[in-house]
TrEMBL record, chains A, B:
InterPro entries: Homeodomain-like_sf (IPR009057), HTH_TetR (IPR001647), Tet_transcr_reg_TetR-rel_C_sf (IPR036271), TetR_C (IPR011075). Residues 31-50 bind DNA. PANTHER family: HTH-TYPE TRANSCRIPTIONAL REGULATOR YJDC (PTHR47506:SF1), TRANSCRIPTIONAL REGULATORY PROTEIN (PTHR47506). Residues 8-68 form the HTH tetR-type domain. This is TetR/AcrR family transcriptional regulator. Gene3D superfamilies: Tetracycline Repressor, domain 2. Keywords: DNA-binding, Transcription, Transcription regulation.
């Protein structure tokens, strides 16, 4: 479907409203009717853009996946030095400090919330996670080439360790409503990367 | 409410059925009527044990919280040596290898699935996570006293790093349907602990 500029703006408004409602109420607690009202659009217009709740949720996942690795931050440059990784970790912790308990529409939250049977949405989430992992993988690869990391550093494992630290830390931080879990998980993952210098 | 032995068995049967259904369909996709049917009990009998779906979900959380840190394993002894921690990590990875993609009713999954507004259930989850953290904290404390870890090892941070590794690894492994994320996260967390020897 090709959208006019106005159509694109409406679509974006719907997605923003959906992400905000999901952050407050969860996927299950958000109906397409709620989203329609929150976006301030009329009658059947929502179905012009998304023909089902599932289609809407998948579009929210895609939108969140295109966000930078730390929500609320401008898109970061390559994560290809210890300084850049540290800045990324600090930004994630700061974001969590500001937002703990305020609701969350991150992919971490969406991954937990999606029923285990929603295979299409799960596939979208996989793609998003793998894309984020590849950003980390690329950065670590540059560091290894430069000699910051030893040749035996396993880039698959290191990049996955950084990504799981972000997700696990965010999950615990959202539940416990403190940034401490994320701070601990990021410190551990960065120390692990540093152990390969 | 004091239950007879038969009543306790029925209650346990209901909780087992609920955990199984939640693993397959998620919290939102599981109705009390589904649980009643799966547990094979009649009419209003479920409400004798749980007066609402929320009460049932909270009881499932409490039940999962009493399970050992690695589901499917017998309750482990104290995690107070590198060998014990390694065995714990290996058991978690093995469990994930057997179960990836088969549905999950772990606290990781429940933490993601609960709507952000369900404060009582969130409180139960917090207690469960903090109890698990305290098991890890105690074991690390013993290791530090014994001299396996340096005096400056921060037990709060190390125990939280291990717990976030388990949760983040499980979350990514369930989504990606491979044990690789959990293996990476546990390796990183254990290496972090080892860096304090």
């Amino acid at each position: 479907m090709t959208l006019t500029r106005k159509g694109q703006a409406t679509r974006e408004r719907i997605l923003e409203a959906a992400a905000e409602l999901i952050a407050q109420r969860g996927v299950a607690g958000t109906s397409t009717e709620d989203v329609r009202k929150a976006a301030g659009i009329g009658g059947s217009q929502l179905y012009h853009y998304f023909d089902s709740k599932q289609a809407l949720i998948r579009a929210v996942i895609t939108r969140q996946a295109e966000a930078p690795l730390v929500p609320g931050q401008p898109i970061m440059g390559a994560l290809d030095s210890f300084d850049a990784l540290r800045a990324w970790a600090d930004a994630a912790v700061e974001h969590q400090e500001r937002n703990s308990g305020r609701g969350d529409c991150s992919l971490t939250a969406l991954a937990g919330e999606l029923g285990p049977t929603d295979d299409q949405a799960r596939e979208d989430l996989c793609q998003a996670f793998l894309r984020w992992q590849s950003v980390l993988h690329d950065g670590l690869g540059t560091m290894r080439e430069r000699g910051d990391l030893r040749p035996e550093a396993n880039l698959d494992e290191l990049s996955m360790a950084l990504l799981t630290a972000l997700q696990g830390g965010n999950l615990l931080s959202q539940t416990l409503r403190t940034a401490a879990p994320l701070r601990a998980s990021m410190n551990a993952a960065l120390a692990y990367v540093r152990s390969f210098t």
